[in-house]
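Backbones bend. We report:
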Amino acid sequence: QVHVVESGGGLVQAGGSLRLSCAASGNFLAILATGWYRQAPGKQRELVAKVTDGSNTHYADSVKGRFTTSRGNSKNTVYLQMNSLKPEDSAVYYCNVEVVHHIGESDYWGQGTQVTVSS
């Protein structure tokens, strides 16, 4: 079993910053990639940013230049630094961790953390 926990969400004014954290623990051999997704009310969940085990990164066009994802000193922790936040960034942010087990690969979701940006 793999446990994924996000933290760091909150309320911030437009133009402000927040840093989200994603920590994975449990029974796995390695983490292949960690993705940050968000879902606003009435909208589909969308990929915001992703970092691989080789530290390659991918960003949605809407957050390029404002958001940065990185792996922590503990390789099981990933951060999402969000700068110049806009009201349209308001959503529940989820972390998805792709791991390798002895029997193959699986992915796991965290419970989500709310980010609200006021205008």
